[in-house]
Amino acid sequence: MTPNTISIDYQTNRVFPEPDVFIHCSQGTRIPVHASILASVSPVLENFIDRPRKHRSSERIIQIHGVPCDAVIAFVGFLYSSRCTEEAMDKYGMHLLALSHVYLVPLLKQRCIKGLTDRLTTENVVDVVQLARLCDAPDLHLRCMRLLANNFKAVEATEGWKFLVKHDPWLELDILRFIDEHETRKKKSRRHRMEQGLYTELSEAMECLEHICAEGCTLVGPYDVEVQRERRPCGRFSTCQGLQVLIRHFATCEKRMAGGCVRCRRMWQLFRLHSYVCHQTDSSCKVPFCRQFQLKMQQEKRKDDAKWKLLARKVASAKVMSSLSLPKRKRDEEMRVTMNNHGIRSFKLL
């Protein structure tokens, strides 16, 4: 059977001599090409071209089978022009990725990886992940695995997944293992965010406690500082109003000396945490019981000291991270407020 020779658009304005190589593809079709172009783009094709022939007069032929002829035409067009149309990527993206990998055309491989990544769906992700593994495309493989993990219920119902389960149990195992690790990472990340949120709230509570004891606010303030008795909620800290209510309760609770109620114990814990966070070792700190707790820490080595020190470090770290996330101007304003924060140790109820 005589091959059917087709002429293709090389997608370039350059003038070429007569073709000296033919690519034979499926359905008995051959494509005329130029050895110099192929050899300059693909080392694999260069090796094919340089192979000795049986007869000098015989044609130089390169066999490319297993992919549609139109995909080979798109592949050859890229070798000449370094361009690939969106239509060709839609129809033959997977075939072009395989060809670019086999014939070592890195520019086309990058283009195919990006194109296939943009076109990933639950219907084609199983086919693409298998091809990505075979073609050494780790970025595309990772994107496929993430899509599988996030949409596994939808993927599980596709024909591609059912075929995979029957014919490639090792890849199925890899995917299920990745999904399990992905869920574990999500749980750890969620737990970490919750913990960081708690530490940030405690950090703000420490700042708010210093603000109340040094400057005073709407309900509570130091004895020798005139506080404007505005009954509007404090706008500096979201925890300020609740902390003031807690301090008022702590000052008037009849159970405080006998161990206190739940709210009193919470206030004691805040005072104690402040003593671990506070860097002032003299009597200049304005927060009540700060120096007493510090002296008690030096005199007595309690079993829970390590836990409190660890909590203090995490609260301090959360404060730093929170300040870094603020805009620079607001960060500078908070620093000035902190440096000019003067007051006395005791406070009164307003």
Low-pLDDT stretches are 335-350
- What number of domains? 2
At the fourth CATH level, what is the homologous superfamily of the largest domain? TAZ domain
CATH A-level architecture of the largest domain = Up-down Bundle
CATH topology term of the largest domain: CREB-binding Protein, Chain A
Shape: elongated
Biggest sheet, in brief?
4 strands, mixed
What fraction of the residues are assigned to beta strands by DSSP? 5-15%
Distance between the termini: 104 Å
SSE succession: EEEHHEHHHHHHHHEHHHHHE
Q: Using DSSP, what is the number of strands? A: 6
Lateral arrangement of strands in the main beta sheet: 1-3-2-4
Estimate percent helicity.
55-70%
CATH class of the largest domain: Mainly Alpha
* Number of discrete helical segments: 15
Query: What structural category characterises the helix and strand content?
Result: alpha/beta
Rg result: 36 Å
Integer average pLDDT: 82
Keywords:
single chain, 350 residues, alpha/beta, Potassium Channel Kv1.1, Chain A, CREB-binding Protein, Chain A, 2 domains, 6 strands, 61% helix, disordered C terminus
Summarize the structure in words.
- The protein is of the alpha/beta class.
- The protein has 2 domains: 1-118, Potassium Channel Kv1.1, Chain A, CATH 3.30.710; 191-227 and 235-349, TAZ domain (CREB-binding Protein, Chain A), CATH 1.20.1020.
- It has helices at 35-41, 43-50, 69-81, 86-102, 106-118, 125-134, 138-150, 152-156, 159-167, 169-215, 240-252, 262-277, 290-299, 305-324, 328-339; strands at residues 4-5, 21-25, 29-33, 60-63, 220-222, 347-349.
- 27% of the residues are buried.
- The termini are far apart.
- Strands 1-3-2-4 form a 4-stranded mixed β-sheet.
- Keywords: Metal-binding, Ubl conjugation pathway, Zinc, Zinc-finger.
- Its main location: membrane.
